[in-house]
Specification:
199 residues, alpha+beta, 11 strands
Length: 199
């Protein structure tokens, strides 16, 4: 494993979550879910836990981004795979979506090669000894920082949490929009939570 740490908010970007089907999820849901869980934990995931065929849900027929999530699996285009392959992926992998990605009819191919990106390595990069103002988490370790109280005290009239505000993402929305009589309306709205919480 390298000395580098990759940080990304891609997993929380709702525009990357597509309404799709995958062969592994349709044929062996338990195995597909286990592959997703292993990937989230940074563990090795064998190729047979990854999709070989992906097809869009009805009404999703459109161009797709270079990175998206398909029923829990991170899928990347050949362009992204080429970039990622230049780095040490540790126990990670780029498995081809061998049969391809298709429109909602599951027959019309979407041009290009796609890969399941297996993260394959997680490491703790937070250095407690270099972060004396870090607060402890529920496991007793310190993992986030806040500014210390100034030696001269907080300025007069200061209100609020005074240096202790820490945003915590609890989830996000994904929605399908439809255009009716020239007006955009929400057809469906999903609230996706990032649970459980540990404070």
């Amino acid at each position: 494993m390298t000395d580098h740490v990759w940080v990304s908010n891609a997993m929380t970007e709702p525009m990357l979550i597509l309404y799709v089907y995958t062969d592994i999820f349709q044929n062996d849901r338990a195995r597909a879910v286990e592959g997703e869980r292993r990937n989230e934990r940074g563990e090795f995931v064998p190729a047979d836990m990854c999709p070989k065929r992906i097809w869009l849900e009805a009404d999703e027929d459109r161009s797709i981004p270079d990175m998206f999530f398909a029923q829990g699996q991170c899928i990347v285009s050949a362009r992204v795979a080429e970039i990622l392959s230049q780095f040490d992926l540790s126990n990670g992998a780029l498995y081809p979506v061998a049969e391809g990605v298709f429109q909602s009819d599951n027959t019309t191919p979407i041009a290009g090669a796609y890969f399941s990106w297996i993260f394959g390595g997680m490491k703790r990069a937070f250095r407690e000894t270099h972060s004396p103002t870090a607060r402890p988490n529920s496991g007793g370790r310190r993992n986030w920082c806040r500014p210390s109280r100034p030696t001269s005290g907080w300025p007069g009239g200061a209100t609020g949490a005074m240096g202790a505000i820490t945003p915590i993402e609890s989830g996000y929305y994904t929605q399908k929009l439809v255009r009716v009589d020239g007006q955009w309306l929400i057809e469906s709205l999903q609230v996706r939570h990032n649970l459980p919480f540990a404070f």
